[in-house]
Amino acid sequence: MKDLHAAAKRCLDATDPVEKLRLTQETWRLFLASELSADPLSPPPEPIGPPGRPARPQLVNARQVPQRGLGSMEGRAALVHAVAHIEFNAINLAWDAVYRYRGKPDAYYRDWASCANDEARHFAMLSERLAELGYAYGDFDAHDGLWAMAEKTAHHDTARMALVPRVLEARGLDVTPGMIERLRHLGDTRTVEILEVILQEEVAHVAAGTRWYQHCCERDGVEPVDMFFALLRDYMGVSLRGPFNRPARIEAGFIEEELDRLAALAPGS
User: Which pTM does this prediction carry?
Assistant: First the structure.
């Protein structure tokens, strides 16, 4: 296989997490070795549907996912599981960005293949931590909000770059420091170490979203800040939550005007 789009689809379709991680690492290695490239003659992408994933976890409405305190082993495991589910979705999101959007610069494909490899490593670390806590991926219910937005934006690369990395995934930049602080107070240094790695690397992933969102806006001749808020309105209404981690978001390419406007839309910011 020489076509990066086909290799990305193979990763995307893998249902077993171990196999998805193996294929992701192999695809990234082959890409770095220049043995894979985006073939302009690759068949067009198929309509988006559910990605490859195991039968568990059971996917439920976000409001039905139980909230557990971090004081118990089960509560900490549920938190680790929730983050692992986000990272598993993020593997699929990165590969779908490679598979679905054609004719992009080589740097675009490198960014998202690299993100997929990072997310796979994050998922592996979290799965190992779950096992240490006596659980496995699939033992808790989860929701499908990230992939639902991928389906909504499949036809529109600008919307995908704006709303998945810069809104949904960027939320991790806002909430992870609080998780780290609570877990540190509880003495869970192992989980803290993992979340610190993820937080640092997710800044670069959100920055990739910023970079390619701005690229799409430049291509289409639209002003990026106004377009960002138009897409927020059209796809999400104003159901945003703050506060926002301004230093991390600025590092990820947000500008003060965007953050001020986001804060005005989010109660409690």
Answer: 0.95
